[in-house]
Amino acid sequence: MEEAFMQRTVTCGELRGCDDGKTVILNGWVDRNRNHGAIHFINLRDRYGKTQIVVDDDSSKELEEIASQLRNEYCIAVKGKVRKRPDEMVNKDMSTGEVEVKAEKIDILSKCQVLPFQIEDETNAKEDLRLKYRFLDLRSKGMQDRIRLRHEVIKAIREYFYKTDFYEIETPTLVKSTPEGARDFLVPSRIYPGKFFALPQSPQLYKQILMVSGFDKYFQIARCYRDEDPRGDRQLEFTQLDVEMSYVKRDDVLALMEDLFGYVFKNVVNVELPKAFRRITYNDAMEKYGTDKPDLRFDLEIKDGTELANASSFPLFKSAVSGNGTVRYIVAPKNEKKDFTRKYLAELEESAKVYGADALYFIKVENGTISGGISKFFQGLDKKVIEKTGAKDGDVILFVANNNWKKCLTSLGAVRNKLGSDLDLIKEGYAFCWIIDFPLFEYNEDEGHWEAAHHMFSMPQAEYIDTLEEDPGKVKGDLYDLVLNGYELASGSIRIHDVELQKRVFRICNFSDEEAEKRFGFLLDCFRYGAPPHGGIAPGIDRLCMILANMNSIREVIAFPKNTAAMSPMDDSPSFVEEKQLDELSLEIRHNDEN
Residues 211, 216, 222, 227: is their CA dihedral positive or negative? Predict the structure, then answer.
C-alpha cells in the first residue's frame, strides 16, 4: 500500500555537487515560487536550508498546473533528480547552490492562508503580531538560527558538566511558598482546600538540601518563575543554569565558571575567552561605572568632583560636599556622529533623572576654555577644570550632585550607558567581569527594616560574623555576580550552613525565630544534621543566548515567550477558567468594584 505522502529522503540543506544524478524526495515549505512562463523556480525550505526545485518546460501539464498553484508557505513533497548547475549559475548564497532538483512529481501536503506577515530572515512585523503567529515567526531564518544557538549552548553546558563529574538532578516545581525577593506564582491544591503550592523562583533551598544530602556537585537546567513586571532581559518564566558544590570557597566557584564559559564560547561561537576574568569590587564598580553590572567594552569612567566643587562658587555643589552628599562627573568625548546640542543634553538629563538625579549640569570645552552651562561658577578656573578632568576641545563635562551616594552614581551610570550607545563607543566582543564584595544587607526605607541585598542564605564575609548586628549596612557578603557586556549574567554566593548564623541573618531581615521556623523550618532542620560548607551560582540561559545572538530582548531566544504585558497572544493566556474548575479548587473570584 502506498504511503500517505512522499517521505523525504534528504533535507533541503543537504544536497551538493556530488549528489548529481540522484533521485531524491524533499519535504518542506515553499519559500519562493518564480514563474517564468512554462518554467518554475521554487525555493523549498526546511530548518536545514533551501533547495531550488525546477519545473522545466518539458514537464507534464499536470505538474505545471500544480506548480502554478503553489504559494508561499505551502507545505509540499517533491520527487526529482539532482542536477548540477552551470558554473555561471551557481548560487553562492545557498549551501545547496551548486545543484538544483528537476521535479518529477509534486504533492501539496497542506495549503497556507494569506500570511499575516512575510516570513523573511528578519521581519519588521510588530512583536505582538509575531507572538500571535509565533508558529510562523519561528520558521524565519533568524528565529531558527537563534533557537539552534540556544540548543548548542545548552548542549555545551551539559557536555562540560558531564565531563567534570557533576550530577544533573531535577528539583520540584511545586514547592512551598517562601519569600525570595519577588512574588510567587501560587498553585491552589484541590486535595487540600485553602492550601497552595508555589512555582519556584529558583531551586535555591533544594540545591542546598542536596549538598546536605551528600551530592557535592550538582547542576540543573532549571525553569524558574517570578510574578513581576517583564522587561527586555527578564520575563515571568525563565531558564537558568543552577550549580551548587560542597567544600568550596569563592575562588573555586569563580574558576569553575571561567572554565565553563571558556568551553561554551569556544564550542558554540569559536571565541577564546581569557582564562580568568577581571574582578571588581562592588564599591569600585559603582564609583567608576555607576552600576554593579558595568559594560567594559568602552572606557568612559565616572570621576570624583569634590575638588572641583570646592573650588567653584556653585552653592549646590558646595552644599553637597559639605554635607553627606557627593558630586561626580563624566567627560563626554567629542563625536562626529553626535553634536552636544541643548536637545541632546536634555535627553541625557532625562536618563539621569530616571535614577534620581535632580539635574544634569554641564560645561563645554572649546578652544582651551570652558563655556556654557555652569561654567560661570568656575570663573578663572578654566585651566584647573581642563587639567583636572582631562577634557579636550569639543568635549562636554557632565555633573550630578546628590545627597544620596547611590543615586548620584547610578544616575551618571545611566548617562554613561547612553553615551556609549549614542556615540558608538562600544567595541565588539565579549567583556566579562566579576563583581565581588557586595553589601550583605540593604535598608528598606519604606518598610523600615534591613533586608538581604541578594538573598538570606548568603554567608557574611568572615571578618563581619561576630559583629553582624552592630551595623548591618557595613557587612559585606561572600557574594559574587558575573557580568557580561553590561548584563548581570549570573549571581551566586557561598551559603550559610550553620543554624544559629542563619537565624541571626533571619532576625536582621525582620524574621523572628518563630516566623523563620514556619517559613524555612525544613531548611533549618537540614542544617542540624551535619551540613557541609557549600556555595553555588546560577547563570541565566536566556540572557546568555540573547547576548550571543546580539539581541536586545530575551524574547528573541525563547520559543514561546510572554509579551511585555505578561501575556501570550498566541494561546491567549492567562485566560478565565470555568466555574467548575474554581469549585473543585474551593476558589471564588472577587472582582474589583469598577465604581
Answer: positive
